[in-house]
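Structure ticket #2291
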Amino acid sequence: MDVSELTQTLSQYSPSVNTTVNAVVSGTKPVALIIITIMFLIEMDSWWKYMKQEGGGLTGELWLDVAYKYILAYILVMMSGQLFDAILEFVNIVLKVIDGIVPSAKVHWNMKLGKVKGIFFKNFFDLFGGSVMFIAGLSTKLIVLMRALEMYLLKAVSPLLIAFFMADSTRPIAINVMKHFGAAAFQAILVLLIVRFYPSLVTDDLLKVNSSGLLETWVNAFAAIGKGIIFIILLWGSQRKAKALLGAM
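Resolution: structure written out below.
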């Protein structure tokens, strides 16, 4: 697998979609800032009523103690697009490092059908094995597409959700959207490792059964197909694994 398929930035993968996403981000930032302002005023009003009941007033220290959370939320909202782009760029750097360390190897599912009798069974294994190989290759392309789409969606809604960073009770919402984007980006590392490690880990010897003659041919044929199915399962499980590793709910 060419690492360039995984190291494309959002602007490189689909410039038109990225332009639209950036427009959505710019358009939702004012709404996010309004949310932050309203929540800040509500909290300060609550503190003012409380301090009035206690016979005191709002001090500068209290203002700063409350305001710093909202200032941080404001900065995160204004920098949300750059923050997500930076996360993806960091992952791309890691991908390029891994690409330089782990050699590229093409996945093969070779089936030796010389001893299988009958045209029907030979054609069946050829067709089924070829289908598995095709699905495996298609799965890789689809996963790259779905990963990019998820990152576009998360980046588009990021200002609205990151705005909730200002309150302790709603902060997990903001953290969760960043975790989900990080998991989508991190998935590329898992996909690359699966593609690079798989040819070495799943060899004929690992799935080979002590047999001879016709039985050996049948076992090797099913083992070759099984390796392709395992490969597909690993690829489609990479998203769930990435979210589990980063604790994205």
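Closing remark: Helices lie at 10-13, 15-53, 60-78, 80-101, 119-162, 171-201, 213-236, 238-246.
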